[in-house]
Design brief:
Blueprint: H1 4-23, H2 27-49, H3 68-71, H4 75-106
Helix pairs in contact: 1-2, 2-4
Length: about 120
């Protein structure tokens, strides 16, 4: 059973991030919006893998193989979330490095100043 509060919180963060990406013109605010999308995605992934009153997925005397599918918490979404957090940190660092370089070039972080930099 997925926790409704956690799932709604994750989806709300994703929607706030999408809204921030589409409405703001400042590059730093857009980077923060992308980070909110990533955080919301991590929360949704962990919420999907959670089992209410579940136990660790270790089959021993406390958890038999027959009841492992209903009582054990799935470790894969948590492992994927940890990996995604590390990747998100690296991507955020690269976006901030690009923002610093853009600020050095134009002395502003507004997207409007970079409209002549088309392909």
């Amino acid at each position: 059973m997925i926790s409704t509060v956690v799932l709604v919180t994750g989806l709300t963060l994703i929607l706030i991030g999408i809204w921030g990406t589409l409405t703001h013109r400042n590059i730093l605010r857009i980077v923060i919006a992308f980070s909110l999308i990533g955080t919301g995605t991590h929360i949704v992934m962990v919420a999907i893998g959670y089992v209410a009153s579940g136990t660790a997925p270790i089959i021993d005397r406390g958890l038999s193989a027959a009841e492992a599918s209903t009582r054990a918490v799935d470790p894969i979404p948590s492992a994927l979330a940890v990996t995604a957090i590390v990747i998100g940190l690296a991507v955020t660092a690269i976006m901030l490095a690009f923002a610093i370089r853009l600020y050095e070039a134009k002395k502003t972080l507004s997207i409007d100043a970079f409209m002549e930099s088309k392909w």
